[in-house]
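[09:14] KT: can someone run the structure on this one? pasting the chain below
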Amino acid sequence: MKRLIYLMLLTITTGLAATAARAETTFSSTLAGSPGSSAKCFGRLTLDDSETQLNVYLDFSGLAGNEVGTVIRNAPFPGGVGPVVFTLGATGSTSGSFINQFAVTAQQVADLKAGKWYFDLNTTNSLDNRRGTIKIYAPFVANITPAQAIPPTVTTATAFCRLIISDANNQISSTLTFSGIDPNDVTAFLYVGARAGQTGGTFVGQLTRTANQLIDITPAQAALIRSGQAYVNVFNQSFPTGLLRGQLVRSGKDWPDFDGDGRADYSVFRSSDTVWYNLTTSGTASFRQWGLSTDTPVPEDYDGDGKTDIAVWRSGPAGQAAFYILNSADNSFRAELFGQTGDLPQVVGDYDGDGKADLAVYRYDVVGSQSYYFYRGSAGNPQGSITFVPWGNDFDIPLPGDFNGDGRKDFAVLRTTDSTWYVLPNGNPSGWFAEQFGDFNSDFFVPADYDGDGQTDIAVFRPLARVWYIQQSSTGTIRYAYFGIAGDKPVVADYDGDGKADVAVWRFSDGNFYSLGSGNTFSAVHWGMQGDYPVARIQSFPF
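[09:31] RB: done, structure tokens below
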């Protein structure tokens, strides 16, 4: 394993068979000040899909002195003082807000994406001046539909909510949009403390159509949102208990959730007819023919709308291998040339932290030499540049995950010769670590966030012993779960919507999904038949 990691950028020309759909990119910043200050300073930015226009929102309150000038600067190095990029203005008050819109260049977008920009807020009390680094943020999203209402309703109306939590966990910023209904005829409330499919919980506040609406919350409420226990309920006089409902989930999640309700769906790909058979946890079935029998299923949320997109990767020589993606946001089709014969596309995921899955492959070189991760970031990358990261060799299996909880996939491999995991944190080459865990000769390797702390846990399933071994990142202890039998295939995902991956298998012999949710709640769902491929398997090895 090489300890010196080089990150290099290559620019390639990509072919598009159809118009690519992209969603706006979100950024966030919590401005820190003097120790012990109770002031709140929360900044949010959205970059439009053309990456030429930037909307900036900054709210502050409780400052020790009057705000006399706020700018965005470009730091030459982390913590350094850089030149002014944009001026937001001055309010002369201890509380206030800025709403600005700026045209941006490609270079400015690149600097923003690289984390060089920061807010610089100055006050008449220099001890309470504020600074906050601006970072890409994967927002929480809710697809608010009649099917999620309890009980379900019949209407063509829908809504969509995008939500950001401050790093201080004391404020949220919400943007709510409606379709098929007059927003003046309905009311939307945010609740925490209820999972997908549940009502009740604690009322947090009323959501309006104000872009980046600011609401104060408690750290406990922030924790419930992060754990998947929050929802938006839309009601009117005709439906006082709820016309529409939407569970808030983190965009960019890995498990298949085609309806965006926060719970993993049961999904199989049948190579004999190239049809995807999907069953939501609410019982709605859908079928879609997509791909060829020789394609590799790679479902992910590529457009950042909180719904998994049907997608396959088709092997071929360089310049012919491609991802074929059906965007759920607008039902558009994308064909993206990427990779080559021999690559492993199961490593797709969000490597730049913008809430949208990035095209990615893992590539072995000649025997005994370096292997590589290749990915093309979706945030601030209009040229389609490819990043490649040397990590592992031909004895290794790629098993990426977010092991440090920063919202970006980290580069990880399993060394087959001694069952050691080697993890390289994304953006921190010096922070790599190794952990021997499991047995390559007997185990499935099933990394996922089982304890709901936002970090991927190292885990294995030993089918002959019927035991799962999970090293929980939240406590450092090993959890044991007795579940499954020999011949089962792991399909780890969050089926009950509590923000934690559930121990789960798909049984080839009977076509059943078996899962063990929170509180050891057992579930069995018949879906699929012999010969099908349960698509949640791409998150484990063997694939």
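[09:33] KT: thanks! The two ends are 23 Å apart (CA to CA).
[09:34] RB: yep, looked fine to me
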